[in-house]
Write a structure and sequence with these properties.
The protein is mainly alpha-helical and 504 residues long. 59% of the residues lie in helices and 6% in strands. The structure holds iron/sulfur cluster (SF4) (2 copies).
Length: 504
């Protein structure tokens, strides 16, 4: 790509502010530091080890065990808040990266992940599996099972990193990371380069290739700089790569071409590797990429991931309200199925079959109403509207996870007290947020998410169909509206508290 084209591309997709969070004194320095990420990871790694210990040896009572309270109540609540306010902070500090990095250092540079699997289908499967196992095995109520899930996570991430060159576990498998990738597209921050002409003259492209080398390597780059009079002149800069360098982007994103937060784990390795300090963690309008044409690849797996995740939010919440038991009983009675099979049926239909069939039906209807069957392939139509499912999906998950978090936001304190052998102050820390306030927050995020989704869908319809924009919008608007209405109905029902029942 020529420098001019690259410049245009960068301008189009770059965050629309010049605010770089890495310029904040102290914070920027810490995050840019070679070991900066480890400072975030080590406390979380230690916390994960404590969770495993408590899960396997502590009281097998969900609200009193770290293994159940921390991940199922607090982690999930804090993740959605962080995604909304900042970005993919959990992946940035993910403790599962520590054994992965170790594996990478030990490995003999394995092979690339099989091409046929380089997509999001496995991630969709692993998300489905996690949600289904959570419900069918009552993971939220079982500290020991949750501890084993954490152990399995460490083993899987270590094994995959040892075998494959890229961060295949993060990019193609991890359900937690996939959730974060999808909803960080609504976040107000994004990794971006600052000057395209600097990237064009950078010889090593360390942001993706890494600045690590077994032997010291020195080269000189001719980098354009703007002088005091505003003119651009060239400056020779020495670049030193060597054993103290860092790895390049694990998920194979090339910083100058980043258009989206999809696949970005916010590890900042690109920032540390770039020899010209040309990458920032930039503030942008929240969800800016959702409004941009071609910010996402037009691929079935990505489109369905986003849409299925929104529907799974509804199904997941449905699994916690009384009608699910009535439905399960009816299915068991009428079809002679076990409890687990009925649950699998509900999850498969509601979380996979329904979103796929409804999406395809709506896309076909849109093509028919706008007479664009020949102009836009079905895949393009679905891909164009897929980003509009991010805000509504995020609203659904926020309403769900926020509920559990706000029911007992401080309950982690007595659990920690008990874990370290102190007297647990249950009465003091078992305070719940006002139920009216929780209900209000749920309505606000659901309706707000729906309106945001409608705005994106409307923009897409007008851009694609111009005079037939209304006809193009209608089927998608109806689907989004039904999704919101179903979610509102579910959240208006009494919900199980799961792991956050207040102890007397
Ligand atoms: S290493 Fe830095 S300057 Fe070089 S291409 Fe990457 S972002 Fe641009
Ligand atoms: S190295 Fe890759 S994954 Fe990490 S912050 Fe940079 S672009 Fe994102």
């Amino acid at each position: 790509m020529t420098a001019k084209l690259q410049q245009r591309e960068m301008e189009l997709y770059r965050p629309n502010t010049a605010i770089d969070l890495l310029q904040i004194p102290g914070l920027g320095r810490l995050l840019r530091w070679s070991w900066g990420r480890l400072v975030l990871q080590i406390p979380l790694f230690i916390a994960a080890v404590f969770l495993i210990i408590d899960g396997l040896t502590g009281p097998q009572v969900a609200p009193r065990n770290l293994a159940t309270v921390a991940p199922w109540v607090h982690y999930r609540g804090l993740v959605v808040i962080a995604l909304l306010l900042v970005g993919n902070l959990f992946c940035m500090g993910c403790p599962f990266h520590i054994p992965r990095t170790l594996a990478k250092r030990l490995s003999l540079r394995g092979r690339r992940f099989p091409k046929i699997l380089r997509n999001k289908w496995i991630a969709i499967g692993s998300l489905f599996l996690l949600f289904f196992l959570y419900e069918s095995l009552n993971l939220w109520a079982s500290p020991s099972l949750t501890a084993w899930v954490i152990v399995a996570y460490f083993v899987a991430s270590f094994a995959m990193e040892a075998v494959f060159t890229e961060s295949a576990f993060c990019k193609y498998v991890c359900p937690l990371g996939t959730f974060n990738f999808v909803y960080s597209t609504a976040s107000p921050t994004q990794i971006a380069t600052k000057r395209a002409d600097v990237c064009a003259n950078c010889q090593g492209k360390e942001c993706i290739n890494g600045s690590w080398a077994s032997q010291p390597i020195i080269r000189t780059d001719e980098i354009p700089i703007t002088n005091e009079t505003g003119d651009i002149e060239t400056q020779a800069r020495q670049v030193d790569n060597g054993p103290l360098g860092v790895l390049g982007c694990g998920t194979q994103l090339f910083a100058p071409q980043i258009k989206s937060n999809l696949d970005c784990v916010f590890c900042l390795d690109c920032v540390r590797a770039c020899p010209h300090e040309n990458i920032g963690l930039m503030v942008r309008t929240p969800g800016r990429e959702l409004m941009q044409v071609d910010a996402w690849p037009k691929k079935w797996d990505i489109s369905f991931l986003v849409i299925i995740l929104a529907f799974m939010g509804v199904v997941n919440a449905f699994g916690m309200v009384p009608p699910v038991y009535e439905l399960q009983n009816a299915l068991m009675r009428n079809f002679n199925l076990t409890e687990m099979l009925t649950l699998l049926l509900i999850f498969l239909v509601g979380g996979i079959l329904l979103p796929i069939s409804l999406t395809l039906a709506v896309a076909c209807l849109t093509q028919a109403l706008t007479q664009t069957v020949k102009k836009y392939p079905l895949r393009h139509t679905v891909a164009a509207f897929a980003p509009s499912f991010v805000p509504i999906g995020f609203g659904i998950w926020f309403a769900h996870y926020g509920f559990h978090f706000l029911i007992a936001p401080l309950s982690i304190i007595p659990v920690i007290q008990e874990f370290v052998g102190q007297t647990a102050e249950w009465a003091r820390f078992s305070v719940s947020a006002d139920s009216g306030l929780i209900g209000l927050i749920q309505v606000v995020v659901l309706v707000g998410g729906f309106l945001w989704s409608m705005l994106i869908a409307q923009r897409t319809a007008l851009r694609l169909y111009r005079r037939r924009g209304v006809q193009g919008l209608l089927p998608w608007a109806l689907l989004l509206f039904l999704l919101m209405l179903t979610a509102l109905n579910i959240f208006s029902l009494p919900m199980e508290m799961r792991g956050s029942v207040l102890l007397s």
